Amino acid sequence: MIKFILGLPYVMRGPLLDTARALKAPVLFSANALSNWKKDALGIPVWNGFNTKRLGLLDGMEAYLDCGGFVAARQYRGYAWSVDEYLDLCAAYPWRWVASMDYCVEPEIAGNRETVLDRISATVALNRACMIGARDRGILHRLMPVIQGWMPEDYARCLDRMPDLSSFEVIGVGSMCRRHLNGSTGILQVVEELDRHLQGSSVKLHLFGLKGIGAAELRGHPRISTVDSQAYGTRARVLAREAGFSKTNKFLAEIMADWYQRQVAAIEQPVKTTRHPSPLLNLCPPRPDDPMEARLQQAREQMRELLESGEIDWEQVHDGNVLAWAYDEEAEAGEPSILLAA
C-alpha cells in the first residue's frame, strides 16, 4: 500500500508539529524549512546556512528531507546552498531518506523544450554529485535519487543518463504536483512510462506533491512506494480568506489534521480496477500576451485543479479569489515566505 507523507513548512515547536506527531504521520521537510536568512546592508535577504539546532524536535518521528528545488528555482532563481552544504544537512540527522538535489522543469521554470532538456541533464549531474558526497559521508544508503521531466519520455531519458541506480530501492519523481491526472503529460502517463521503462527492476517510486485523486487513483500501483503533499496550506488559506480572518497556525493545524486523515482514508480504500490511460488532446487555452491576463489565467487554472482534487469548494472559485490567488505571495512561491533570522 502507498504511504502518504505529510509535508510540513518548517521545523518549529507549535500546533503543526504537535498535530503531526499526534497523527503519527510520516513527515517531509524541505531544506528551505531549515534555512537561516539574514538581511545584508541593503536589506536584501541572504542565505546564512542551515539551522540544525531544531532537528531534535523531530526525534521519535518518521522524518524525510527534500532539497527544496522548486522553491529555489522560483524564489531564488537557483539554489542558495551548495551540494556539500545540503549533504551536511542530510548527514546531520537520521532521516528515513534524503532526496538528491535536482532541477525542476515545471512550465513556469522551464519555458521551452531546450530548457527542459538542459535541466534534465543538470539533474543527472546533481544526482551524480550527491551520490559521491553521500558516499563520502556514509549516508548513501539514505539517499534517494530524483529524476526529472515533463513529457513521459523525458523521465526515461533522465533514467538512461543517470549513474547506476541498481542499488537504490526508491527513486523520486519530480515535477509532479502541478500536472493533471490524465492526458499525454498527465500523472498516469508518466507512471506508466516509468513502469514500462523499469520492467524487470524492483525499484519503487516516490511521487513528489501527489495528493487527492492522484494518490487515490494510484493507490494499488505496485511501482509506487510513497507520495507526499502539503496542499492543506492552500485549503486553509482559501478558507481563512473566505471567512475574513488571518490564517493562524492553530487553524492551519486543524485543517491539516482533517485533510491528512482524508488523504490516508482515500488511499486505504480497496482497489477495484487498474487504470490503463490513453493520451488525450491538449485542450489548454493559449497563454495571453498580456502579463496580468496570463497571471490571472494561471491562477484560475490552479484553482480549477484544486477544485478537481477536492482541496477547495466550487463556491470558492470566483473572480475575487482568483485575483487574490494570482497576487498571493505564498501561492506563488508554493511554500511559506522566507523566515528571516533575528
From TrEMBL:
BP-aspect Gene Ontology terms: tRNA modification
Signal peptide: none
Database matches in Gene3D superfamilies: Queuine tRNA-ribosyltransferase-like (3.20.20.105)
Name used for this protein in its record: DeoxyPurine in DNA protein A domain-containing protein
Lineage: Bacteria, Pseudomonadati, Pseudomonadota, Alphaproteobacteria, Hyphomicrobiales
Domain DeoxyPurine in DNA protein A: 64-249
InterPro entries xref list: DpdA, TGT-like_sf
Domain of life: Bacteria
